[in-house]
């Protein structure tokens, strides 16, 4: 059986590659992702795939290689990016992650509602890839995967 990975989806610049690097234990800056990147434990989906509705079927297809899906929303950029109910298209558990946590606390309600609308069940996790806030809690959950 093929190894299952943690799939990361979210709009461009929401922190998928930065978070994938943390999960894979890689240090260093993230570059804009152009293609699906299979990491040691992760499957990093470029933001442009999510932003192009005709690519959604490829995201759903690629999720066959995933044990879980992390759906990211960034506090700094409130952009509608998930179709309503999108989380329900996956047959594996979906975990909501709000990145940039603390950068725009006034946007937190919008981010939570965005995740709810896409069908992600609670709780969602708050992290900041800049200062490491919340990463321990999320890594604890991912350790069991
Ligand atoms: N301060 C802070 N910066 C963040 C956070 N998440 C992402 N960034 C920054 O935002 C930029 C883009 O992050 P990436 O991890 O490359 O974003 P991505 O989701 O992989 O983007 P694409 O590959 O274009 O889809 C980087 O400069 C990150 O350092 C966060 O939680 N806090
Ligand atoms: Mg990336």
Query: How are the strands of the biggest sheet laid out side by side?
Result: 2-3-1-4-5-6
Name given to the CATH homologous superfamily: P-loop containing nucleotide triphosphate hydrolases
Give the number of domains.
1
Residue share in helix: 25-40%
List segments where confidence is low: pLDDT < 50 over at least 5 consecutive residues: none
Coarse structural class: alpha/beta
Global outline: globular
User: Number of DSSP strands?
Assistant: 6
Give a quick summary of the entry.
The chain has helices at 16-24, 47-51, 56-62, 108-117, 135-143; strands at 5-9, 37-38, 42-44, 66-74, 94-99, 125-126.
Task: Give a verbal description of the structure.
By secondary structure, the protein is of the alpha/beta class. It has a single domain, classed as 3-Layer(aba) Sandwich (Rossmann fold), CATH 3.40.50. 28% of the residues lie in helices and 19% in strands. The protein is built from five helices and six strands. A six-stranded mixed β-sheet has the order 2-3-1-4-5-6. Strand 2 and strand 3 form a beta hairpin. The longest helix has 10 residues. The relative contact order is 0.19. The model has no long low-confidence stretch (mean pLDDT 96).
């Amino acid at each position: 059986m093929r190894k299952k990975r943690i799939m990361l989806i979210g709009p461009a610049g929401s922190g998928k590659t930065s978070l994938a690097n943390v999960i894979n234990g890689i240090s260093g800056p993230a570059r804009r992702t152009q293609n699906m990147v299979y990491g040691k434990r992760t499957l990093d989906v470029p933001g442009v795939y999510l932003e192009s509705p005709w690519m959604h079927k490829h995201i759903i297809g690629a999720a066959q290689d995933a044990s879980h899906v992390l759906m990211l929303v960034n506090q700094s950029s409130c952009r509608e990016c998930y179709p309503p109910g999108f989380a329900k298209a996956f047959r594996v558990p979906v975990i909501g992650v709000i990145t940039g946590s603390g950068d725009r606390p006034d946007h937190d309600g919008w981010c939570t509602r965005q995740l709810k609308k896409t069908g992600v069940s609670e709780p969602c996790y708050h992290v900041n890839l800049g200062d490491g806030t919340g990463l321990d809690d999320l890594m604890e959950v991912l350790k069991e995967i």
